[in-house]
Amino acid sequence: MVNDAWAVLVEAEGKVHVVEMSAGVRKIKGLGVFDPVETIGSAPYGTVITLGQKQLTRMPPRLPELSRGMLRRAQTISAKDAGYFIAKLGIGSGDRVLEAGLGSAGLSMHIARSLGGSGTHVTVEPRSEHADVGLKNMERARASWQEFPGHHHVHGAIEEVVDEIRSHSEFFDAIILDLPQHPTAIDAVASLLAVGGRMACYCPVTSQVELAWEAAEGAGLTVEWAGELMERQWGKASKGGMRPVNGPFGHTAFLLIAQRTSIE
Ligand SMILES: C[S@@+](CC[C@H](N)C(=O)[O-])C[C@H]1O[C@@H](n2cnc3c(N)ncnc32)[C@H](O)[C@@H]1O
């Protein structure tokens, strides 16, 4: 029997709706006016639910569905770059991870999923209107998954809240910065990186990655890798065979990864 706090409903074209399973008739954005408890109830995964003209399939609230159906405000980091960060930084069970800014929590949900139930995840965000959205997405994930790390959110610019960050963990195994300006943040938190731990910066433009590189070296870190990842989706061609699908071949960001290799 399905008893999710948030129901995931997927349209035929793949659009995902994440609906809070609380009783009461109300307007649910993109789906119309209904009571989710009466209409969706404990319907098993795979059940097709009709809402007006829409046919939606109920699916489990896994990371890809919660990401696709997330609330959005700030630009988000998607699976392509989040997956690479997690692999290159070696993030897993029991780790201590510091992340700024939280934004809409696109990256945060990936980190929380990788940490499982035994890690510490500290997020930082100065803009309440971004944090409101990001924390709602994190709450959906926490309520949906069996395991979730100890999550602490710190309000403020990362440069100004180092003592509060330190109160949650003295050192971190991984620090990820997705910010408009990296150098001041790197200067502020590089000393929180444990020996062997890695810091990653997400830099939409080249000037940012260059400045992040210089700041990381200035803070005593060793730059391990910088570059970008390109993703090209393929599909079935109408006359048979496979080929890259039509559409934009976009840019997300340049990534920089640096490691603390010594005590000083
Ligand atoms: C592009 S968004 C982050 C998106 C997030 N990584 C995601 O995947 O949803 C950048 C965020 O950094 C926040 N920010 C800007 N300056 C900051 C600072 N000094 N310290 C912490 N966060 C900051 C912004 O308010 C914004 O929400």
Can you tell me about this structure?
The protein has 264 residues and is of the alpha/beta class. The protein has helices at 36-39, 63-68, 79-89, 106-115, 128-144, 162-168, 183-189, 206-218, and strands spanning 6-11, 16-20, 26-28, 32-34, 48-51, 54-59, 96-100, 120-125, 150-155, 172-177, 193-203, 222-227, 234-236, 242-244, 254-259. It has 2 domains: 6-60, Vcp-like ATPase, Chain A, domain 2 (Roll); 68-259, 3-Layer(aba) Sandwich (Rossmann fold). The strands form 4 sheets. It has a 7-stranded mixed β-sheet, with helices on both faces. Strands 2-1-6-5 form a 4-stranded antiparallel β-sheet. Strand 3 (26-28) and strand 4 form a beta hairpin. It is globular. The chain starts with 5 loop residues before the first strand and ends in a 5-residue tail after the last strand. The mean pLDDT is 96. Residues 74-77, 100-101, 103-107, 124-127, 130, 157-159, 178-180, 185 line the site of S-adenosylmethionine. S-adenosylmethionine is lined by residues 74-77, 100-101, 103-107, 124-127, 130, 157-159, 178-180, 185.
